[in-house]
Structures are given as structure tokens and as C-alpha cells.
Design brief:
17 strands; Rossmann fold; disordered N terminus; 13 helices; 2 domains
């Protein structure tokens, strides 16, 4: 009897084990790419989530800031997550073949003019404005074809629903129609983070797109719109709302011709809102409504997230000599201004703001100009132990639910800028949990 070759047996067993491991990893991992990554807000939120052995894995990321030579956001991203599979180049110059196959595409893209100049003959391609980053997302989806991701999770400012001013809703209609042409159904929701217990009043639109043959697509296709929005959709599960009745929904149908939308959408009633704070789109038809949040859990306020005062550098405190300048910026005022084009003089008025900021409420929205010692209307100022001061970078990170010192390594002003550009990580975490449950 021939003695078995133990080496071959072990080798085959090891190969089989590796195959099984690869299968487990494949079934348990949602491969994700993060576009316009900033300092990694989407990544932090998604990597915090695990559900029944499923998890998200960032297989590629891109961050490029065209207006600066030093790439601060990308540098912070790489310092926290490493350089592997990270691209710090203009996304429009990246060949789609260089982007790994993925299940989920995430990103916070700028609110721009998404209008279309023309369609490309004999293809589904389009010619959008150069430098408009929505069309880079579209390019990836279109060129990936059958390997395009099953899911998209995108974030933007809520004015996207109303832009441009003279043709309200046109830009969002272009996004919805282009996703429909690529085979996606869509849910969207404008979410104010503080409505769900988070520490900042930051209102943003989140867009979830899902392809046919996914569980989430079936939920949208098999249920009435009011059921999806009220109960069964991704946003309904993650962020409950008070019941919206059917007669409160607006219905509309989109052209599949993006040039036609560009030229004609909402031309008859340009000041009327076509899209409201919540909605779905499938097969070119959409239903949209206003809503009220429903939340009874713990609420985090600004005062809970402050650093120990003994750790605050003196540069963040406001001198008595500067205090009146801050009070002026925060107060009500009327200022005469001149239109540079027409020379017409007019009175610019603004109301007063709370000063100092209330510690018993969620913080106001962080803006990119939060950093620096110069008096400003929009920077946060708090009063602790009878002293006025600005917020520190760590406190700004906490308001976005980032780890402490995530942005360490750049100047304090730049750290504030990066947090002004970031999102509230807790929202992504809850949505990520919903996606895992649906996958």
C-alpha cells in the first residue's frame, strides 16, 4: 500500500482552508470606496458598525483639494488610516479601471450646478460641466457597468433640493434621473443630527441608492411609498419619524432625458419646491413629503463635550479688550452697503445671536471659518468659570462625533476648517447599521 504524501494532504487542506476563509470574508465584508473623503468621516462611522459578523471594509479612497498645494485633509486621512489604497489626486484624472470592485460607494460631494450640456450619441453617457464632482460619481457607475456597486450612500447640503433658485429642484431631478437610468432606486432624507440626540444642529441630505436584486430595492419596489418612508425603508429604520399620511405626499415623474430636465424641469413654477425633506424614487417616479422626527432617547448637549478647563490653552480665551468686538459681531445691526455692479446703496440687516452659546443645548452648525482668534458672528463662544473662550479642535471633533485628536498634525485653524467640512459620524454609523441589516 502506497504511503500517502502528507505534504500534499496538508497543502490541499491549507488551500481548501484559504478558499473557505476567502468565501467567509467575501460574504461578511461590504467592500466600500470613499470618495471626497475629507478626513474620513464616512469611514469612521462605517467601521464602527458590525452586525451578525458583517462589516464594512474600505478598499479604496480618494481625497483631493484643488485649491491648496498642501493636502491637509488627505494628510490627516493617511496619518489615521495609512497610505494603502488611498488616492490623493484629482478624481477626474483617475482611470475607473484603477478603482477596485466594490459593493458600496460613499461620499459627501459638493452642491454645484449639475446641468447637462448634451448627451453622447449612441450611448448613455452625458456631458456635464467640467469639475462638477457628481459627474465623477456617474462616470464610475457607468464605466463599472455590471460591476457597479449595489449601494450608494451620499451626503450633501440640504439646499440641493431647492437648487437652482430660478428652477427649484432641477439639480436633484438630474441626480435622481441619472441614477434611475443606471438602474438604481433611491431613498433620501434631510436629517438634522440634533433631532436624534446628537450634539450638533447640523442639517444635511443623505441619499441612499440601491440596485435591483438587492433586499433594499425590493423593499422600495414591493411597498407603498408611505410604507417605505414611514416604516420599512433604510431611513425609517435608522431615524424614526411621526407617521406621514398618504395625502401629504407629492408625486412626480422624471424625464429620462437629462438635457430635457436641464432645460425644462420646473420651468412653469420655478419657485415651487418639487422635492421635500423625505422621499423615494423608483422607475423614474418619485414621492416626497415633509416629516417630523420621532426620538425619545438621550440627548447630548454642548456642555457635556467640553474639555477640562485646566487643559485649555490661553490662545482660546477672549481678552476683555476684544470682548466688545465679539458682542458687536453677535448683535443685531444694520449696515449700509453698495452693489458693486449697479452702485445701488442698500441697508443690510441681521438679527442678534445668542451670546455666549448655550451649554444646555446641542451646538450650532460648525462652519469652515470656525478657527482663528478674530471676532466673528458665526464662531462658537462659550462662557465657563466667568471666562469667554472659543472651542478647541478636540471639542469641535467631539461635536462631529470624531475621536479626540483625529485631526492632530495640522494647525488649529486648519483643524477647525476640516471639522467644518466634515459630517456627524453618528448619522453614518446608524445608516451603516441599517445597510448591514438589509444586505
Amino acid at each position: 500500500m502506497k504511503t500517502p504524501n502528507l505534504f500534499n494532504i496538508y497543502q490541499k487542506a491549507e488551500e481548501q482552508n484559504n478558499m473557505n476563509t476567502e468565501m467567509v470574508i467575501k460574504t461578511q465584508t461590504i467592500r466600500t470606496i470613499e470618495l471626497f473623503a475629507g478626513v474620513g468621516g464616512f469611514r469612521i462611522g462605517l467601521e464602527r458598525v458590525k452586525e451578525k459578523n458583517k462589516k464594512f471594509q474600505i478598499v479604496w479612497s480618494n481625497q483631493w483639494e484643488p485649491s491648496t498645494k498642501t493636502q491637509h485633509a488627505s494628510d490627516v486621512y493617511c496619518a489615521r488610516f495609512g497610505y494603502e489604497n488611498h488616492s490623493n489626486e484629482d478624481i477626474s484624472t483617475v482611470d475607473v479601471s484603477e478603482i477596485p470592485t466594490h459593493d458600496l460607494l460613499v461620499g459627501g460631494f459638493p452642491c454645484q450646478d449639475y446641468s447637462v450640456a448634451s448627451t453622447l450619441k449612441n450611448s448613455h453617457g452625458i456631458v456635464g460641466k467640467k469639475g462638477v464632482l457628481w459627474w465623477e460619481i456617474y462616470r464610475i457607475l457607468e464605466e463599472k457597468k455590471d460591476e457597479a456597486p449595489k449601494y450608494l450612500l451620499l451626503e450633501n447640503v440640504d439646499r440641493l433640493l431647492k437648487s437652482p433658485a430660478l428652477q427649484r429642484g432641477r439639480d436633484f431631478a438630474i441626480i435622481l434621473s441619472s441614477l434611475n437610468n443606471l438602474g438604481y432606486a433611491v431613498e433620501w432624507r434631510v436629517i438634522n443630527a440634533s433631532d436624534y440626540g446628537m450634539p450638533q444642529r447640523r442639517k444635511r441630505i443623505f441619499i441612499f441608492a440601491t440596485k435591483i436584486d438587492t433586499k433594499s430595492y425590493k423593499i422600495i419596489s414591493d411597498n407603498l411609498p408611505k410604507i417605505v418612508v414611514n416604516e420599512k425603508g433604510l431611513f425609517a429604520k435608522a431615524f424614526p419619524i411621526k407617521k406621514v399620511e398618504e395625502n401629504n405626499f407629492i408625486y412626480g415623474k422624471l424625464s429620462n432625458d437629462l438635457v430635457d430636465i436641464t432645460n425644462n424641469f420646473n420651468k412653469m413654477t420655478p419657485k415651487k419646491n418639487s422635492f421635500l425633506e423625505a422621499g423615494i424614487m423608483i422607475n423614474g417616479e418619485y414621492w416626497t413629503t415633509k416629516y417630523e422626527s420621532k426620538y425619545e432617547g438621550e440627548k447630548i448637549v454642548l456642555g457635556q463635550l467640553l474639555e477640562d478647563e485646566k487643559n485649555i490653552p490661553e490662545e482660546f480665551f477672549i481678552n476683555e479688550s476684544e470682548l466688545e468686538k465679539w458682542k458687536y459681531q453677535k448683535g443685531a445691526k444694520s449696515i449700509e452697503r453698495v452693489n458693486k455692479t449697479t452702485g445701488h446703496k442698500y441697508l443690510y440687516s441681521e438679527g442678534s445671536m445668542g451670546f455666549p452659546d448655550c451649554l444646555e443645548k446641542p451646538a450650532r452648525t460648525i462652519i469652515t471659518g470656525e478657527g482663528g482668534a478674530s471676532p466673528s458672528r458665526f464662531k462658537h463662544v462659550i462662557k465657563v468659570h466667568n471666562r469667554y473662550r472659543r472651542l478647541t479642535p478636540i471639542e469641535l471633533e467631539r461635536l462631529n462625533m470624531f475621536p479626540d485628536n483625529h485631526t492632530l498634525g495640522v494647525s488649529n485653524s486648519k483643524r477647525a476648517f476640516l471639522m467644518g467640512n466634515a459630517l456627524v459620524v453618528g448619522i453614518v454609523e446608524k445608516l451603516g447599521d441599517g445597510i448591514l441589516r438589509m444586505s
